[in-house]
Specification:
The structure is a homodimer. Chain A is of the alpha/beta class. Chain A has 2 domains: about 150 residues, Aspartate Aminotransferase, domain 1 (Alpha-Beta Complex), CATH 3.90.1150; about 230 residues, 3-Layer(aba) Sandwich (Aspartate Aminotransferase, domain 2). Helix content of chain A is about 40%, strand content about 15%. The first copy, chain A, is built from 13 helices and 12 strands. In chain A, strands 2-8-7-6-5-3-4 form a 7-stranded mixed beta sheet, with helices on both faces. A 3-stranded antiparallel beta sheet of chain A has the order 9-12-11. In chain A, strands 1-10 form a two-stranded parallel sheet. In chain A, α4 packs parallel to α10, α5 packs parallel to α6 and α5 packs across α9. The longest helix of chain A has 24 residues. The termini of chain A are far apart. Chains A and B meet through α1, α3, α5, α6 and α9 of A and α1, α3, α5, α6 and α9 of B.
Chain lengths: ~400, ~400
C-alpha cells in the first residue's frame, strides 16, 4: 500500500476537534453540553440573503468568473469604501471562504521554507494553511495580562530572518477578541516597510466591534499599500458560514495576477452563494445593531461571569465573539476533558477549547481556554454557573 | 515591493483562456462567435435540484461537517452501489468541486518533487493542481489515430522512476471523449500494483457514455482497492457546475484520514449546494435519457460534420462531451486566433481550444483542437459550416 505524503502526515488536526469524542460520550450519557468551543453563531442569516437564495430563477447553475461575479465585486468595493477602506473592484478576488483567500495568499507570496510571523495565540487553522503552502510559522507571544495587545515591535524584529516573508494578523482577533489600535497597526506598517514583507490582515470580524470601538483596516496604511493582503469573509458578518464566500483583497497587481491563476485552476466559487453574499450587502443597519447588542450582552454575561469566579481572569475583548480566559488549573486541556467526562452540574456541563492549541510555542497558554459567546444569554448564564461549580470541586485546582 | 512566489509565477494559465481577448474583440466587431472552447453545458439543471435550493427553509446558513452532510454522503454511496461501484459512506469526503478533490488527493499522497504519470492530452487544470501540490507531471502520449486509446503499458513502464507516486486518468476523458475499456483498466491495475502507486481516476463524466457503452470504474479493480482514489463531481452530471460540489473517494483509510485534515482546515463545502446535490440524486432517469439523446445528436452533428471537411480527422468519442480533431493546418493556435481575428462567414465564426495546451510534451498536438459540443444542434451545424468555409480560405492551410 503506497504511503501518504509527509504533508498529510504532518498536517495539524484542529484543537477544537480533539475533545469532540468526549462531548459525544457526555451527550450519550444524557448530559446537556454548552458548546463554548466553536465559532458557529446561532444568529440568523439576514432575510435579504436567504430570500436571494429562495427567489433565484436560474435554470442552469453555471460557473461564475473565477474572480467572482462582477456585480458582486463592484458592490463589495462600494461596501468597503463606505467605511473609507480604499478597495476597487480590481483589488478583489472572491474566494471560497476566507480559508481559500488565505491559502491563495500564502501560495502566491511564499516559497516553501519561508517564514511567516504571527502573534500568538492565533486562529489554529493558520497552521493548516501554512502547512499547505509549505511555510513555517514563527510565533510572537502576546499575553493575557495585556489583553493580548500587539507584542512590542522589537519582539517581531528579533524573529525576522532572511526567510521571513510575511506577518499575519487577525483583527479583531480570533481567539483573543483583541482589536488592534491605529498606533499598533502603524508600528506594523513600519516594520513591514523596513523589511519589505507582506502583511496579511484577516479582518473577517470587522463588524463585531463593541463599546464604540472603530476597527482600523490594514488597507488604510498607505505606506505599505502594495504589501497588504486583506482577508475577508461573509461567514461571520452575516452569519452565513455555510455559504463559503470570502475575498482576497490587495492593491498589489503582481499578487492579484498570481492569485488569479490559482483561482482559475479551481474554476469558480459557488454561484448561488455569491448571489446570496451580494444580496447580503443590502442587510439593513438594524440587523447589525441588533446583533451587536446581543453580542455585547453575551460578552458581558460571559466575561463578567468568568471574572467573578475566584481564580479566573478574562480580559474583556472589544471585538469578535471570542475570549480567552486563564483558569486556576495547571492543564486546561485536562480540565476541559474532565468537564466532559467526569463532571456535571444538574446534568449540565461545558465544552471549551483549550487555548494551548492556539499557540505555536510549546507549553504556552496551558492554563487558558478559548470561549466563543455564540450561545443565547440564558445558556451562557448556565454555562458560567457550571464552570463556577466545576472549579469548586475540580481535584486538580490550583 | 516584496516578490511573489515561484509557484505563483510558474502557475500555468489555462489554455482555454488564451484566446479570450480575441473572442471579445471579435464580438465587439459584431461577429457571432460559436463557443466550442468551453465545458459549460447549456443543459438545464434538474428541477429537483433547483427546487431544493428555492424551497430550503434554513434560518442560519451554517457550516456542514468537513466531510460533507451525512445524509448526502449516505445517499451518494447508495448511488454508486446502484451501478455496482463499491463505495461506502466512510469512503466519501464531499469537496468543493472535483478540483478540490484532486488537490486534496495530490497533497495527501505526493511529496513535492514526486512524479505523476498522465496520458496526454489531459485536462489542462491538472497542471495547476500538480503545481499547487509541487509535483511534476510526466506525460505518456496517446494518439488521435487510435482515438486516444490507452498507450501501450510499456510506455508507462518506461516513465516510472523512484519518484513516481501516481497515475492519473480521466475516464471518460476530457479532452478526448475516450472511454477506457475494462481491459485497459486492468492493465493499469497491474502496473499500479506492481509499482505500488496511487491511481487517480477522474470519473466526473461517467453518465456521459454513448452508443450503449458502459463505463468501468477504477473502484472495481479489487487488486488495487487501496491504491485507487476516485474523483467525482456533480458539475457535469447534473449541469450544475456552479454548485462546486465534488467528492474524493477511496477505500484507503490512511488517505482518507490525511485528506480529512485538509478538509477540516477549510471547514466545509457550501451548505445549500450540498443540499442541492443531495436532491439531484433523485433526478429521474428521463432527464438523463433526454440529455444523452441530445449529446449523441450533437456529437454526431459535430464529429460527422468535421470528418466531412476535407483534411479534417476527428475520432468519434463514446463519452463526455468533447472531441479532439486534427486540422489541415500547421499550427492550430494560430488558426484559432485567425478565426477570431480575420475570418467570418456571414458574420459568424468559431472559437476552439488549441489542443497543444492539453499536452505536456512540447510541440505535440500542434495540429489539433479540442471542441466541446455544449451548444444547441443548430449552432453546431452553423459552427461546422464556418469551419468548413474557413479551411477553404485559410492562407496557411496545408
Amino acid at each position: 500500500m503506497p504511503k501518504i505524503s509527509v504533508k498529510a502526515a504532518e498536517m495539524p488536526a484542529s484543537p477544537i476537534r480533539k475533545l469532540v469524542p468526549f462531548a459525544e460520550a457526555a451527550k450519550k450519557k444524557g448530559k446537556i453540553v454548552y458548546h463554548l468551543n466553536i465559532g458557529q453563531p446561532d444568529i440568523e442569516t439576514p432575510e435579504v440573503a436567504l430570500e436571494a437564495i429562495r427567489n433565484n430563477n436560474l435554470k442552469t447553475l453555471e460557473y461564475t468568473h473565477s474572480e467572482g461575479i462582477e456585480s458582486y465585486r463592484i458592490s463589495l468595493g462600494e461596501y468597503y469604501r463606505k467605511f473609507d477602506i480604499p478597495v476597487e473592484t480590481e483589488d478583489i478576488i472572491i474566494t471560497t471562504g476566507g480559508s481559500e483567500a488565505l491559502i491563495f495568499g500564502l501560495m502566491t507570496t511564499c516559497n516553501p521554507g519561508d517564514e511567516i510571523i504571527i502573534p500568538e495565540p492565533f486562529y489554529a487553522n493558520y497552521n493548516g494553511f501554512a502547512k499547505i503552502a509549505g511555510v513555517n510559522i514563527v510565533p510572537v507571544t502576546s499575553y493575557i495580562e495585556t489583553g493580548f495587545a500587539l507584542p512590542p515591535i522589537e519582539e517581531f524584529e528579533k524573529k525576522i530572518t532572511s526567510k521571513t516573508k510575511a506577518i499575519i494578523i487577525c483583527n479583531p482577533g480570533n481567539p483573543t477578541g483583541y482589536l488592534y489600535t491605529k498606533e499598533e497597526l502603524e508600528k506594523l506598517s513600519d516594520i513591514v516597510k523596513k523589511h519589505d514583507l507582506f502583511l496579511f490582515s484577516d479582518e473577517v470580524y470587522r463588524e463585531f466591534c463593541y463599546d464604540g470601538a472603530v476597527p482600523f483596516s490594514a488597507m488604510n496604511l498607505p505606506e505599505i499599500k502594495n504589501n497588504v493582503i486583506m482577508i475577508d469573509s461573509v461567514s461571520k458578518r452575516y452569519s452565513m458560514c455555510g455559504a463559503r464566500i470570502g475575498a482576497m483583497i490587495s492593491k498589489n497587481k503582481d499578487v492579484m495576477q498570481g492569485a488569479m491563476k490559482f483561482a482559475q485552476a479551481r474554476l469558480s466559487s459557488p454561484t448561488i452563494d455569491q448571489i446570496a453574499a451580494e444580496a447580503a450587502l443590502k442587510t439593513p443597519q438594524s440587523y447589525f445593531d441588533k446583533v451587536e447588542k446581543e453580542y455585547v450582552a453575551r460578552r458581558d454575561i460571559l466575561v463578567d461571569g468568568l471574572n467573578k469566579i475566584p481564580g479566573v481572569f478574562c480580559p474583556k475583548p472589544s471585538g469578535a465573539f471570542y475570549c480567552v480566559a486563564k483558569l486556576p488549573v495547571k492543564n486546561a486541556e485536562k480540565f476541559c476533558q474532565w468537564l466532559l467526562e467526569d463532571f456535571d452540574f444538574e446534568g449540565q456541563t461545558v465544552m471549551m477549547a483549550p487555548a494551548a492549541g492556539f499557540y505555536a510555542t510549546p507549553n504556552t497558554g496551558l492554563q487558558e481556554v478559548r470561549l466563543a459567546y455564540v450561545l443565547k444569554q440564558e445558556s451562557l448564564l448556565k454555562a458560567v454557573k457550571c464552570l463556577e461549580e466545576a472549579l469548586k470541586v475540580y481535584p486538580e485546582r490550583i
